[in-house]
Amino acid sequence: MSLTVHHYDAACTDPEMIVHANSMHSNLQLTPTLESNNQISFLDLPIIRKSHQLEIDVYRKLTMIDTTINYLSNNPIEHKLAAYRYYIERMLNLPLNCTWQLREWQTILRIATPNNFTNTLLHKLKQQIQHRKTKPPPTANQDNNTKWATCTFSSRHVRKITNLFKHTNIKIGFRCRNTIAQITKPATDHNIPPHSKGGVYQLTCKSCNLSYIGQTSRSLKTHFQEHIRYIKSNNPQLAYAQQILHNQHKYGTLNKLMTLLKPLKYEKMLIPYEQFYIQSLHQAGKLIPEQYPGELNPLFQLAIHHPPYTLQDRASQTTTRNPDT
């Protein structure tokens, strides 16, 4: 049986210590990192040997990519500034001399420029961090009373709502859902037949072609069997069974009569979508009389008469505004 030998770098120049450490176990071998040009790297810091003292600087690999969350991206400002907040706090907390600190600050500004951050914004962030360092730490009672809540960030309007809690003990943390993991996540229900899902459905009468709109959190197949059971038992409790029994109309099979209009996983959205489709089919003259709505909802009216805004509409508007391009 062969054993894999693992090598580890060690910032040590004592040969006797290296020999002793390598003799402890055959699978653990230490390789010393020697000092070069009076300096040696330790974690993300280069330690520089001077005549009477040691100085440190910020070390970055040559393969480092100067890419952060772009300032123009649709992300909370807290997330955009997170990387630069870390850079600035590290620069201020490390015991850097004036020369190294100035060079680190210039590096931070250089990283921010291609990511569309202005120097004014970073200077303001630096002043805020320096001001916070001079303030006394909060008391234990203040920390215990602070509560955190998570809000899904989607637009600038969310900021107006969260500002209501600005002077309270409730802190808002933002969470984005349009991440790469969410976008590239494969659909889990693409192989599930429509009649095995729940949501808002349309059930058509075979004789008059008028439709009934319903909603269920269970599968459509299970709900369809309930409708048929009410019809066979001569029980007009449901509107669709009442339509079939009172008019002596015919009904058919699941695949020919039942259509899934809106698959939904959250039960709280079932009733709003059901009411929307009821009003939509009623205006189109395709709804059974037993399900006629009372007063029309003006918000549904707006959605019915104005179709969703598409990318083609945006392209056509751009062409109209700029006919020369």
How does this structure look, described?
It is a single chain. Residues 1-8 have low confidence and may be disordered. This protein has 325 residues and is of the alpha/beta class. The chain is elongated. Among the domains are: 6-56, no CATH class; 146-182, no CATH class; 194-305, GIY-YIG endonuclease. The longest helix has 16 residues, at 119-134. It is 40% helix and 16% strand. α3 packs antiparallel against α4 (98-112). The strands form 4 sheets. Strands 3-4-5 form a 3-stranded antiparallel beta sheet, with no helix packed on it. The protein has a 3-stranded antiparallel beta sheet with strand order 9-8-10, sandwiched between helices. Strands 1-2 form a two-stranded parallel sheet.
Ranges with pLDDT <50 over ≥5 residues? 1-8
Order of H and E elements: EHEEEEHHHHHEHEHEEHHHEHHH
Radius of gyration (CA) equals 33 Å
Estimated share of beta-strand residues: 15-25%
| Head-to-tail CA distance between termini | 71 Å
User: What's the story with the biggest beta sheet?
Assistant: 3 strands, antiparallel
Name given to the CATH architecture of the domain at 194-305: 3-Layer(aba) Sandwich
DSSP summary: helix tally: 14
CATH topology of the domain at 194-305: GIY-YIG endonuclease
User: What is the strand arrangement across the widest sheet?
Assistant: 3-4-5
CATH superfamily of the domain at 194-305: GIY-YIG endonuclease
